[in-house]
Each structure stands twice: as C-alpha cells, then as structure tokens.
Amino acid sequence: QVQLVESGGGVVQPGRSLRLSCAASGFTFSGYAIHWVRQAPGMGPEWVAVMSYDGSNKYYADSVKGRFTISRDNSKNTLYLQMNSLRADDTAVYYCARAGLGGGDGYNDAFDIWGQGTMVTVSS
Amino acid sequence: QSVLTQPPSVSAAPGQKVTISCSGSSSNIGNNYVSWYQQLPGTAPKLLIYDNNKRPSGIPDRFSGSKSGTSATLGITGLQTGDEADYYCGTWDSSLSAWVFGGGTKLAVL
After folding, report:
1. Cβ separation of A102 and B51 shorter than 8 Å?
2. Measured between CA atoms, how close is A65 to chain B, in angstroms?
3. Alpha-carbon gap, residue B52 to B34, rounded angstroms
4. Does any CB of chain A come closer than 8 Å to the CB of residue B51?
C-alpha cells in the first residue's frame, strides 16, 4: 500500500548531527514533492523543509536554515534530512509527508500521505 | 506565534455543527490553497480538506471547507465523539517561501 516510513531518530547531544530517512512505497516516489514536518511534545506541527519531485527546488523553515539539509534519492525511493548543530528545541517527532493532492505547483500541494514519525531528542 | 490564527478550542454537542476559523494574509491564504488536517492523540495528522473545499477519497461529507479573502473555515456537521481531535489549517506562504500551519484548534464534543 501507499506509505512513508521514517527512521533514524534517537537521542543525541546538543551540537551533534543526525540523519533521518523516509522510505516510500506503493507509489511513484519520483513524481511527488515530499516535506519534513516536526511536532514538539504538546505543540502543533511545524513545517521544516520540502524538496520538489526532481530535487530542483528546496525550501527550508527559518528555524533550520543553514543547519538542516534535505535531499532525495529517487532510485532508492528515499528522502533524507541531514540535521547538524542540533539544539534542544529541535526535539520533536519528525514526519515526512507527501504533497500529493491539490492544484498548486507540487511542493505547495496538500499533504495527503504521512509517515508514522520518528522521535528526535536533543539532550545532554 | 503562528502565521495562521485559529481559535484554541471549540465545543459542541453530539449531532450539532461546529466551525473552525483560520485567519491569514494575502501572502498565504489570500493567494494559495488551504488544507485542513485532523490529528488524533498519538497519531500523524490526517488530510481532511484540500484546495480550500475538496475532500480526499474516504472523508465523509460531514466535513466541509470554504475560503473567503484571507480567511478559511472548516465545518463539521453531525458531530460524533470520534471527532474529538486537534484540527490544523495549512497553506503555502509565498512571501516566506514556506509552508505554514495554524496553531491548532482542539474540538470537544460534549
């Protein structure tokens, strides 16, 4: 079935790095923009980054710009999020979500498929 | 402080109707499509409405969406206890080149 599965979360010290992966199955991964969205405990979702279907466009939230890098390997049906210089306020569940429905330009379409999330805890 | 403004909470009795508002600006709601998401405790958000007023396959017609100017509204009729959840609006912000979510509205079905 159509699904996204995140992995790579864990506990990391402030200032260290972590790489998250988002594996897609059941659909043509290379045809869709995919987003990273995070949600801190007890808070609402916060958008992190998006990469267009072919990797030609990527956008970041100001809170992660310069520290996080989004990338994708369409041959492996996988999206990545490289997170450097991690801070305590990066602690959250990280979801990947497909921009799969809408009349927009792809990367700004609605999020129709979400993964189950992977928890990242930044703590000393 | 969220770019999109939602009421923190709404409530209504089973069987009744409720609306949830989402206020933004010309750079986001005013010039882009709005979507709505339902989040039950411990689960990922689920798409309810896209392109302001369209429902994905499988979403009952009790859920509806509308947009006027720089505001959008989610409507839920025939409320059920299972509708108790957090609801979020979202859209692209062309000035920020970023997706933005509302702060969320907790629905209580009393």
Report:
1. yes
2. 11
3. 5
4. yes
B85's enclosing H/E stretch is strand B85-93
- Give pLDDT tens digits for B69-105: 999 999 999 999 999 999 999 999 999 999 999 999 9
Residues 6+ apart with CB under 8 A from A66: none
SS3 for B83? helix
DSSP state of B31: G
- Residues A21/A79, Cβ–Cβ less than 8 Å: yes
Tens digits of per-residue pLDDT, A39-93?
Answer: 999 999 999 999 999 999 999 999 999 999 999 999 999 999 999 999 999 999 9
Distance of CA A13 to the CA centre of its chain: 20
- Which positions in chain B touch A48 (Cβ < 8 Å)? none
Q: What is the dihedral of CA A115, A11, A79, A93, to 10 degrees?
A: 30
CB contact under 8 A, B51 and A47: no
